[in-house]
Amino acid sequence: MFMSSDVQRRTAMQERHVTQPHEAGHPIVLATEDLHVYYGSKEAIFEGDLQFAQNQITALIGPSGSGKSTYLRSLNRMNDRIATVKGRIMYRGVDINQPDIDVYEMRRRVGMVFQRPNPFAKSIYDNIAFALRLRGVTAKTKLDEIVETSLRQAALWEQVKDDLDKSALALSGGQAQRLCIARAIAVKPDILLLDEPASALDPVSTSQLEDTLLKLKQHYTIIIVTHNMQQAARISEYTAFFNQGRVLEYDTTSQIFTNPQVQVTSDYVSGNFG
Known about the structure:
- By secondary structure, this protein is α/β, with parallel strands linked by helices.
- A seven-stranded mixed beta sheet has the order 1-11-10-4-9-8-7, with helices on both faces. Strands 3-2-5-6 form a four-stranded antiparallel beta sheet, covered by helices on one side.
- It has helices at 5-12, 68-74, 103-109, 124-134, 140-153, 157-160, 173-185, 203-216, 229-235, 253-258, 263-269; strands at residues 17-18, 28-39, 42-53, 57-61, 84-91, 94-95, 110-113, 191-195, 221-225, 238-243, 246-252.
């Protein structure tokens, strides 16, 4: 009997397909090699091997519990106290899990923005200036310059420039999330990690956040966890699909969404499960 074209396609599909970035002008700045992450005796990430290109946006997608956020948090050792990590996480050629690594300096270079906006109970100005002062920046003119630059890059300056002394807790959800981005970039990171940054935002705020990220990639390498397939398709150059703790497919975003090579990926991006 002859198989239908759909059955033939399913039969020809692979179980795993990983194509690492290799675009000219965008060197690899971060890579994980044979990465395994454990919570106690439970393995949450199996052989996570991915590379991330400079000044590109990479989306991490997959169903809930697939390991996306665990993987993301491993990239700047945010899980140090609760997880055991094996394998190598190479940031510009240095394994960040080496015992002599300055974790605080590493987290400055690889910054994190969380799922829900978490501004400090301080003024808008001090939300950004706080970390700068801790790092020895005390001159008012320098603080003013960095605060303004950071807010401009986060597309928030025009909305708050006359209210810098007001509490950050009074900002809308979208504004608060962009303030958190401004706070992260004020210390001049190299890479920005974002864990579902738009999940608590309305559609207008989500669109504004996406526009901000597209502009920020001129200066930063961005890795974002998202459940929003349209968002991943709109803003990312590369997409990694996670399922049950494994990276099943990694390729250009256009390839993942138009011609996935793994059946489970195809089912997920088409909305058949997840």
